[in-house]
Amino acid sequence: MKISRILHAGYVFESGATQILFDPVFENPFSRNCHAFPDARFDLAQVRQLRPDAVFISHFHDDHCSMESLDLLDRATPIYLYCVFDELFAMIRALGFADVQPLAVDTPVSIGAFEVIPRRALDADVDSMFQIRAEGLNVLNVVDAWMDPETLEQLKPYAPWDMVLWPFQTMREVDVIAPSRAARGPVALPEEWPQQLQTLAPRYVVPSSCQFQQEPWSWYNRAMFPITYQRFAQEVGEWLPSAQVVRLNPSVSVLLTADGLTPAAPLPWVLPVGDQDIDFHYDENIVPPATADIARHFAPLTAEQAAQALEFCRTDLIERYEEMELPDDSYFATPCVWQLAVYDHAGGVEQFRYRVRGDSIALVGDEEAPTWTTEIPLAKLYAGLALGESLTSMYMRINGAPEDADIVDDPLIRCLFNDAIGAYQAAQLRRLGITV
Protein backbone atom coordinates (compact mmCIF):
# COMPACT_ATOMS: atom_id res chain seq x y z
CA MET A 1 0.00 0.00 0.00
CA LYS A 2 1.51 3.31 -1.09
CA ILE A 3 0.56 6.31 1.05
CA SER A 4 1.38 9.87 -0.04
CA ARG A 5 0.77 13.20 1.70
CA ILE A 6 -0.83 16.07 -0.20
CA LEU A 7 -1.07 18.53 2.70
CA HIS A 8 -3.08 18.99 5.89
CA ALA A 9 -5.48 16.01 5.91
CA GLY A 10 -5.03 15.21 2.21
CA TYR A 11 -3.64 11.82 1.19
CA VAL A 12 -3.30 9.57 -1.83
CA PHE A 13 -3.65 5.82 -1.21
CA GLU A 14 -2.62 3.36 -3.91
CA SER A 15 -2.73 -0.42 -4.09
CA GLY A 16 -2.21 -2.25 -7.35
CA ALA A 17 -3.99 -0.21 -10.02
CA THR A 18 -6.36 1.48 -7.55
CA GLN A 19 -5.86 5.09 -6.48
CA ILE A 20 -8.00 6.90 -3.89
CA LEU A 21 -7.78 10.51 -2.73
CA PHE A 22 -8.76 11.49 0.80
CA ASP A 23 -9.76 15.10 1.59
CA PRO A 24 -7.86 16.44 -1.44
CA VAL A 25 -6.96 20.13 -1.43
CA PHE A 26 -4.73 21.39 -4.26
CA GLU A 27 -4.48 25.02 -3.10
CA ASN A 28 -1.99 27.05 -1.12
CA PRO A 29 -3.18 28.95 0.77
CA PHE A 30 -6.33 26.91 1.22
CA SER A 31 -9.47 27.75 3.15
CA ARG A 32 -8.54 31.39 2.29
CA ASN A 33 -5.93 31.76 5.02
CA CYS A 34 -4.27 28.39 5.71
CA HIS A 35 -0.71 28.39 4.37
CA ALA A 36 0.92 25.00 3.86
CA PHE A 37 3.49 24.22 6.55
CA PRO A 38 6.00 23.29 5.27
CA ASP A 39 5.45 25.27 2.10
CA ALA A 40 4.33 23.62 -1.14
CA ARG A 41 2.92 24.47 -4.55
CA PHE A 42 0.95 22.40 -7.07
CA ASP A 43 1.41 21.57 -10.73
CA LEU A 44 -2.26 22.04 -11.60
CA ALA A 45 -1.79 20.75 -15.16
CA GLN A 46 -0.70 17.42 -13.69
CA VAL A 47 -3.52 17.50 -11.14
CA ARG A 48 -6.01 17.82 -14.00
CA GLN A 49 -4.57 14.65 -15.53
CA LEU A 50 -5.29 12.60 -12.40
CA ARG A 51 -7.86 9.84 -12.78
CA PRO A 52 -8.47 8.60 -9.24
CA ASP A 53 -10.84 5.71 -8.73
CA ALA A 54 -12.63 7.64 -5.98
CA VAL A 55 -12.47 10.63 -3.67
CA PHE A 56 -13.42 10.32 0.00
CA ILE A 57 -14.21 13.46 2.03
CA SER A 58 -14.41 13.10 5.79
CA HIS A 59 -16.53 16.19 6.50
CA PHE A 60 -17.73 19.48 5.04
CA HIS A 61 -15.23 21.93 6.58
CA ASP A 62 -13.56 24.05 3.92
CA ASP A 63 -10.05 22.72 4.61
CA HIS A 64 -11.32 19.26 3.64
CA CYS A 65 -14.10 19.90 1.12
CA SER A 66 -13.01 22.49 -1.44
CA MET A 67 -15.04 23.14 -4.57
CA GLU A 68 -12.11 24.81 -6.33
CA SER A 69 -9.94 21.75 -5.73
CA LEU A 70 -12.66 19.31 -6.81
CA ASP A 71 -13.15 21.45 -9.92
CA LEU A 72 -9.73 20.26 -11.12
CA LEU A 73 -10.76 16.60 -11.17
CA ASP A 74 -12.39 14.50 -13.89
CA ARG A 75 -16.17 14.63 -13.52
CA ALA A 76 -16.45 10.84 -13.84
CA THR A 77 -14.70 10.48 -10.46
CA PRO A 78 -17.00 9.05 -7.79
CA ILE A 79 -17.20 11.35 -4.76
CA TYR A 80 -18.00 9.91 -1.32
CA LEU A 81 -18.84 12.48 1.36
CA TYR A 82 -19.68 12.15 5.04
CA CYS A 83 -22.08 14.99 5.74
CA VAL A 84 -25.51 15.38 7.31
CA PHE A 85 -26.31 18.47 5.22
CA ASP A 86 -27.86 18.02 1.77
CA GLU A 87 -26.50 21.39 0.60
CA LEU A 88 -22.95 20.05 0.21
CA PHE A 89 -24.04 17.17 -2.02
CA ALA A 90 -25.98 19.61 -4.22
CA MET A 91 -22.91 21.83 -4.53
CA ILE A 92 -20.66 18.98 -5.65
CA ARG A 93 -23.29 17.86 -8.18
CA ALA A 94 -23.50 21.46 -9.41
CA LEU A 95 -19.79 21.16 -10.31
CA GLY A 96 -20.77 18.39 -12.70
CA PHE A 97 -20.00 15.26 -10.69
CA ALA A 98 -22.70 12.69 -11.41
CA ASP A 99 -21.68 10.03 -8.89
CA VAL A 100 -21.87 11.71 -5.49
CA GLN A 101 -22.61 9.34 -2.63
CA PRO A 102 -23.25 9.86 1.10
CA LEU A 103 -21.15 7.84 3.51
CA ALA A 104 -22.72 5.97 6.42
CA VAL A 105 -20.91 5.01 9.60
CA ASP A 106 -19.71 1.39 9.63
CA THR A 107 -20.88 0.79 6.06
CA PRO A 108 -17.92 -0.41 3.94
CA VAL A 109 -17.25 0.95 0.46
CA SER A 110 -15.20 -1.23 -1.91
CA ILE A 111 -13.09 0.55 -4.51
CA GLY A 112 -10.82 -1.79 -6.46
CA ALA A 113 -8.25 -3.20 -4.07
CA PHE A 114 -9.50 -1.05 -1.15
CA GLU A 115 -12.21 -1.32 1.44
CA VAL A 116 -12.96 2.02 3.14
CA ILE A 117 -15.10 1.99 6.28
CA PRO A 118 -16.30 5.30 7.75
CA ARG A 119 -16.11 5.25 11.53
CA ARG A 120 -17.97 7.38 14.04
CA ALA A 121 -16.15 10.40 15.46
CA LEU A 122 -16.94 12.08 18.76
CA ASP A 123 -18.91 14.82 16.98
CA ALA A 124 -20.87 12.55 14.65
CA ASP A 125 -22.85 15.48 13.18
CA VAL A 126 -19.62 16.89 11.74
CA ASP A 127 -16.70 14.48 11.47
CA SER A 128 -15.92 10.97 10.43
CA MET A 129 -12.82 8.79 10.46
CA PHE A 130 -11.71 6.23 7.87
CA GLN A 131 -10.58 2.66 8.27
CA ILE A 132 -8.68 1.80 5.10
CA ARG A 133 -7.96 -1.83 4.23
CA ALA A 134 -5.99 -3.40 1.38
CA GLU A 135 -3.40 -6.14 0.90
CA GLY A 136 -4.15 -7.44 4.40
CA LEU A 137 -3.12 -4.06 5.89
CA ASN A 138 -5.20 -1.86 8.21
CA VAL A 139 -4.76 1.92 8.33
CA LEU A 140 -6.81 4.29 10.51
CA ASN A 141 -7.13 7.85 9.22
CA VAL A 142 -8.46 9.82 12.21
CA VAL A 143 -8.54 13.00 10.07
CA ASP A 144 -9.48 15.98 12.35
CA ALA A 145 -11.70 13.98 14.64
CA TRP A 146 -11.66 13.34 18.35
CA MET A 147 -11.93 9.66 19.13
CA ASP A 148 -15.32 8.46 20.33
CA PRO A 149 -14.89 6.00 23.27
CA GLU A 150 -17.34 3.50 21.75
CA THR A 151 -15.52 3.71 18.43
CA LEU A 152 -12.24 3.03 20.18
CA GLU A 153 -13.69 -0.18 21.61
CA GLN A 154 -14.98 -1.07 18.15
CA LEU A 155 -11.50 -0.59 16.65
CA LYS A 156 -9.64 -2.36 19.45
CA PRO A 157 -9.99 -5.89 17.98
CA TYR A 158 -8.08 -4.76 14.86
CA ALA A 159 -4.97 -3.98 16.92
CA PRO A 160 -2.14 -3.89 16.27
CA TRP A 161 -2.92 -1.42 13.49
CA ASP A 162 -0.36 -1.13 10.71
CA MET A 163 -0.56 2.66 10.63
CA VAL A 164 -2.55 5.43 12.30
CA LEU A 165 -2.78 8.95 10.83
CA TRP A 166 -3.25 10.92 14.04
CA PRO A 167 -4.34 14.61 14.25
CA PHE A 168 -1.46 15.71 16.44
CA GLN A 169 -2.00 19.47 16.68
CA THR A 170 -4.46 20.82 19.25
CA MET A 171 -5.31 24.24 17.88
CA ARG A 172 -6.07 27.00 20.40
CA GLU A 173 -8.89 28.69 18.48
CA VAL A 174 -10.72 30.00 21.55
CA ASP A 175 -7.51 31.25 23.14
CA VAL A 176 -6.57 33.50 20.21
CA ILE A 177 -10.12 34.83 19.88
CA ALA A 178 -10.37 35.64 23.61
CA PRO A 179 -6.71 36.00 24.68
CA SER A 180 -7.61 37.69 27.97
CA ARG A 181 -9.08 34.34 29.05
CA ALA A 182 -6.26 32.17 27.72
CA ALA A 183 -4.32 30.07 30.20
CA ARG A 184 -0.62 30.87 30.36
CA GLY A 185 2.19 28.35 30.34
CA PRO A 186 2.99 25.20 28.37
CA VAL A 187 0.17 23.20 26.80
CA ALA A 188 -0.15 19.52 27.67
CA LEU A 189 -1.09 16.92 25.11
CA PRO A 190 -4.64 15.63 25.68
CA GLU A 191 -4.68 13.21 28.59
CA GLU A 192 -6.74 10.62 26.69
CA TRP A 193 -4.23 10.24 23.84
CA PRO A 194 -1.84 7.74 25.51
CA GLN A 195 -4.59 5.25 26.31
CA GLN A 196 -6.19 5.66 22.88
CA LEU A 197 -2.95 5.11 20.99
CA GLN A 198 -1.92 2.25 23.25
CA THR A 199 -5.27 0.58 22.57
CA LEU A 200 -4.71 0.87 18.81
CA ALA A 201 -1.08 -0.24 19.18
CA PRO A 202 0.01 0.94 15.71
CA ARG A 203 3.30 -0.05 14.12
CA TYR A 204 3.57 3.43 12.57
CA VAL A 205 2.10 6.78 13.67
CA VAL A 206 1.90 9.74 11.27
CA PRO A 207 1.40 13.22 12.82
CA SER A 208 -1.48 14.32 10.63
CA SER A 209 -3.73 17.33 9.97
CA CYS A 210 -3.06 20.96 11.01
CA GLN A 211 -0.14 21.04 8.58
CA PHE A 212 -0.56 24.78 8.06
CA GLN A 213 -0.04 28.23 9.52
CA GLN A 214 -1.57 31.66 8.94
CA GLU A 215 0.10 34.55 7.07
CA PRO A 216 3.84 34.95 7.79
CA TRP A 217 3.26 38.07 9.92
CA SER A 218 0.45 36.54 11.98
CA TRP A 219 0.77 36.29 15.75
CA TYR A 220 -1.41 33.18 15.48
CA ASN A 221 1.64 31.26 14.25
CA ARG A 222 3.13 31.43 17.74
CA ALA A 223 -0.12 31.23 19.70
CA MET A 224 -2.43 28.83 17.82
CA PHE A 225 -0.19 25.77 17.38
CA PRO A 226 1.29 24.56 20.70
CA ILE A 227 2.58 21.10 19.73
CA THR A 228 5.77 20.56 17.74
CA TYR A 229 6.50 17.56 15.57
CA GLN A 230 9.50 16.89 17.82
CA ARG A 231 7.48 16.88 21.01
CA PHE A 232 4.76 14.67 19.52
CA ALA A 233 7.34 12.13 18.37
CA GLN A 234 9.02 12.16 21.78
CA GLU A 235 5.83 11.64 23.77
CA VAL A 236 4.41 8.98 21.42
CA GLY A 237 7.76 7.21 21.70
CA GLU A 238 7.29 7.08 25.47
CA TRP A 239 3.71 5.78 25.16
CA LEU A 240 4.49 3.30 22.37
CA PRO A 241 8.14 2.20 22.59
CA SER A 242 7.76 -0.28 19.74
CA ALA A 243 6.04 2.16 17.34
CA GLN A 244 7.75 4.45 14.85
CA VAL A 245 6.60 8.04 14.33
CA VAL A 246 6.83 8.93 10.63
CA ARG A 247 6.55 12.52 9.43
CA LEU A 248 5.08 12.84 5.95
CA ASN A 249 5.68 16.28 4.46
CA PRO A 250 3.79 17.44 1.34
CA SER A 251 4.52 15.11 -1.62
CA VAL A 252 6.32 12.49 0.51
CA SER A 253 5.33 8.87 -0.15
CA VAL A 254 5.96 5.61 1.66
CA LEU A 255 5.32 1.97 0.83
CA LEU A 256 3.65 0.11 3.69
CA THR A 257 3.94 -3.67 3.80
CA ALA A 258 3.52 -6.34 6.44
CA ASP A 259 7.30 -6.33 6.81
CA GLY A 260 7.96 -2.61 7.18
CA LEU A 261 7.91 0.87 5.70
CA THR A 262 10.14 2.10 2.89
CA PRO A 263 10.40 5.40 0.96
CA ALA A 264 8.56 5.59 -2.35
CA ALA A 265 8.52 7.97 -5.31
CA PRO A 266 7.00 11.33 -4.23
CA LEU A 267 3.89 12.82 -5.79
CA PRO A 268 5.14 14.66 -8.89
CA TRP A 269 2.34 17.24 -8.81
CA VAL A 270 3.04 18.43 -5.25
CA LEU A 271 6.06 20.74 -5.36
CA PRO A 272 7.83 21.28 -2.01
CA VAL A 273 9.19 24.80 -1.45
CA GLY A 274 12.13 25.48 0.85
CA ASP A 275 13.09 23.65 4.01
CA GLN A 276 10.63 20.82 4.64
CA ASP A 277 11.73 19.77 8.14
CA ILE A 278 10.72 22.97 9.89
CA ASP A 279 8.73 22.82 13.12
CA PHE A 280 6.14 24.89 14.94
CA HIS A 281 7.26 27.51 17.43
CA TYR A 282 4.85 28.17 20.27
CA ASP A 283 5.38 31.22 22.52
CA GLU A 284 3.42 30.76 25.74
CA ASN A 285 4.11 34.39 26.74
CA ILE A 286 3.19 36.10 23.48
CA VAL A 287 1.33 39.40 23.73
CA PRO A 288 -1.27 39.77 20.97
CA PRO A 289 -0.97 42.88 18.80
CA ALA A 290 -3.78 45.41 18.74
CA THR A 291 -6.58 44.71 16.28
CA ALA A 292 -5.86 48.10 14.68
CA ASP A 293 -2.33 46.91 13.85
CA ILE A 294 -3.62 43.61 12.46
CA ALA A 295 -6.14 45.45 10.26
CA ARG A 296 -3.32 47.42 8.63
CA HIS A 297 -2.04 44.22 7.01
CA PHE A 298 -5.11 43.96 4.78
CA ALA A 299 -5.73 45.76 1.53
CA PRO A 300 -8.45 48.42 1.57
CA LEU A 301 -11.93 47.38 0.55
CA THR A 302 -13.72 49.12 -2.27
CA ALA A 303 -16.21 51.76 -1.20
CA GLU A 304 -19.04 49.36 -2.05
CA GLN A 305 -17.53 46.52 -0.01
CA ALA A 306 -16.90 48.74 3.00
CA ALA A 307 -20.43 50.11 2.83
CA GLN A 308 -21.84 46.57 2.74
CA ALA A 309 -19.88 45.53 5.84
CA LEU A 310 -20.82 48.65 7.82
CA GLU A 311 -24.46 48.43 6.81
CA PHE A 312 -24.45 44.91 8.17
CA CYS A 313 -23.45 46.34 11.56
CA ARG A 314 -26.27 48.90 11.46
CA THR A 315 -29.18 46.78 10.23
CA ASP A 316 -28.54 43.21 9.04
CA LEU A 317 -26.85 42.11 12.26
CA ILE A 318 -29.86 43.27 14.25
CA GLU A 319 -32.27 41.43 11.96
CA ARG A 320 -30.25 38.22 12.01
CA TYR A 321 -29.82 38.28 15.77
CA GLU A 322 -33.53 38.68 16.45
CA GLU A 323 -34.37 35.80 14.10
CA MET A 324 -32.31 33.40 16.26
CA GLU A 325 -33.24 31.84 19.58
CA LEU A 326 -30.78 32.54 22.39
CA PRO A 327 -29.96 29.72 24.84
CA ASP A 328 -31.41 30.36 28.30
CA ASP A 329 -28.00 30.04 29.96
CA SER A 330 -26.29 32.53 27.64
CA TYR A 331 -24.41 35.53 29.05
CA PHE A 332 -26.64 37.69 26.83
CA ALA A 333 -29.84 36.38 28.40
CA THR A 334 -29.23 39.03 31.06
CA PRO A 335 -29.51 42.63 29.74
CA CYS A 336 -26.11 44.10 28.89
CA VAL A 337 -24.33 46.49 26.53
CA TRP A 338 -22.23 44.96 23.77
CA GLN A 339 -19.77 46.93 21.62
CA LEU A 340 -18.57 45.97 18.14
CA ALA A 341 -15.43 47.79 16.93
CA VAL A 342 -14.53 47.54 13.24
CA TYR A 343 -11.04 48.57 12.08
CA ASP A 344 -10.22 49.65 8.52
CA HIS A 345 -6.94 49.19 6.61
CA ALA A 346 -5.51 52.38 8.12
CA GLY A 347 -6.26 51.29 11.70
CA GLY A 348 -9.21 53.65 12.01
CA VAL A 349 -12.14 52.37 14.03
CA GLU A 350 -15.91 52.66 13.84
CA GLN A 351 -17.76 51.52 16.94
CA PHE A 352 -21.31 50.24 17.27
CA ARG A 353 -22.90 49.86 20.68
CA TYR A 354 -25.94 47.67 21.27
CA ARG A 355 -28.32 47.01 24.16
CA VAL A 356 -28.89 43.25 24.22
CA ARG A 357 -31.87 41.77 26.08
CA GLY A 358 -32.09 38.06 25.39
CA ASP A 359 -33.35 37.67 21.83
CA SER A 360 -33.67 41.43 21.21
CA ILE A 361 -30.92 43.84 20.26
CA ALA A 362 -30.85 47.57 19.40
CA LEU A 363 -28.27 50.25 18.72
CA VAL A 364 -27.73 52.67 21.59
CA GLY A 365 -25.56 55.68 22.33
CA ASP A 366 -22.30 55.72 24.25
CA GLU A 367 -23.78 56.75 27.59
CA GLU A 368 -23.29 53.30 29.13
CA ALA A 369 -19.98 51.40 29.06
CA PRO A 370 -20.01 47.98 27.41
CA THR A 371 -19.36 44.83 29.42
CA TRP A 372 -18.50 42.67 26.38
CA THR A 373 -16.56 43.98 23.38
CA THR A 374 -15.79 42.45 20.02
CA GLU A 375 -13.17 43.74 17.58
CA ILE A 376 -12.61 42.76 13.96
CA PRO A 377 -10.79 44.11 10.89
CA LEU A 378 -13.25 45.52 8.36
CA ALA A 379 -11.67 43.42 5.60
CA LYS A 380 -12.30 40.24 7.59
CA LEU A 381 -15.86 41.19 8.42
CA TYR A 382 -16.51 41.61 4.70
CA ALA A 383 -14.78 38.29 4.00
CA GLY A 384 -17.04 36.57 6.52
CA LEU A 385 -20.12 38.09 4.92
CA ALA A 386 -19.30 37.69 1.23
CA LEU A 387 -16.51 35.12 0.90
CA GLY A 388 -17.38 32.50 3.48
CA GLU A 389 -14.26 33.08 5.58
CA SER A 390 -14.07 30.90 8.67
CA LEU A 391 -13.90 32.17 12.25
CA THR A 392 -10.36 30.94 12.92
CA SER A 393 -8.85 33.24 10.30
CA MET A 394 -10.90 36.41 10.85
CA TYR A 395 -8.74 37.88 13.66
CA MET A 396 -11.83 38.52 15.74
CA ARG A 397 -10.99 39.62 19.29
CA ILE A 398 -13.37 39.27 22.25
CA ASN A 399 -12.74 41.15 25.48
CA GLY A 400 -14.65 41.07 28.75
CA ALA A 401 -16.17 37.62 28.36
CA PRO A 402 -16.39 36.03 31.83
CA GLU A 403 -14.66 32.70 32.38
CA ASP A 404 -17.99 30.86 32.53
CA ALA A 405 -19.39 32.48 29.37
CA ASP A 406 -19.34 30.66 26.04
CA ILE A 407 -17.63 32.88 23.50
CA VAL A 408 -19.66 31.38 20.63
CA ASP A 409 -22.64 33.24 22.14
CA ASP A 410 -20.93 36.44 20.97
CA PRO A 411 -23.55 38.23 18.82
CA LEU A 412 -21.19 38.69 15.85
CA ILE A 413 -20.16 35.03 15.88
CA ARG A 414 -23.78 33.93 16.03
CA CYS A 415 -24.90 36.28 13.26
CA LEU A 416 -22.08 35.23 10.94
CA PHE A 417 -22.01 31.49 11.56
CA ASN A 418 -25.38 30.26 12.80
CA ASP A 419 -26.96 28.35 9.90
CA ALA A 420 -23.98 29.19 7.66
CA ILE A 421 -23.48 25.63 6.44
CA GLY A 422 -21.43 25.57 3.24
CA ALA A 423 -20.93 29.35 3.08
CA TYR A 424 -17.31 28.99 1.98
CA GLN A 425 -18.16 26.42 -0.68
CA ALA A 426 -21.04 28.55 -1.94
CA ALA A 427 -18.64 31.49 -2.32
CA GLN A 428 -16.26 29.22 -4.23
CA LEU A 429 -19.03 28.21 -6.63
CA ARG A 430 -19.90 31.86 -7.22
CA ARG A 431 -16.26 32.52 -8.14
CA LEU A 432 -16.50 29.59 -10.57
CA GLY A 433 -19.67 31.09 -12.08
CA ILE A 434 -21.90 28.26 -10.81
CA THR A 435 -25.28 28.80 -9.20
CA VAL A 436 -26.86 26.17 -6.97
General description of the model:
- The chain has helices spanning 44-48, 67-70, 86-94, 149-155, 173-177, 193-200, 229-239, 291-295, 303-323, 378-386, 411-417, 423-431, and strands at 2-5, 11-15, 18-22, 35-36, 40-42, 54-57, 79-81, 100-102, 109-111, 114-120, 128-134, 137-141, 163-167, 204-208, 212-213, 244-245, 253-256, 261-264, 270-272, 336-343, 349-357, 360-363, 372-377, 397-399.
- With 436 residues, the protein is α/β, with parallel strands linked by helices.
- The chain folds into two domains: 2-272, 4-Layer Sandwich (Metallo-beta-lactamase, Chain A); 291-431, SCP2 sterol-binding domain (Nonspecific Lipid-transfer Protein, Chain A, 2-Layer Sandwich), CATH 3.30.1050.
- The strands form five sheets. Strands 8-7-6-3-2-1-17-18 form an eight-stranded mixed sheet, covered by helices on one side. A seven-stranded mixed sheet has the order 9-10-11-12-13-14-16. The chain has a five-stranded mixed sheet with strand order 22-21-20-23-24.
- The chain is globular.
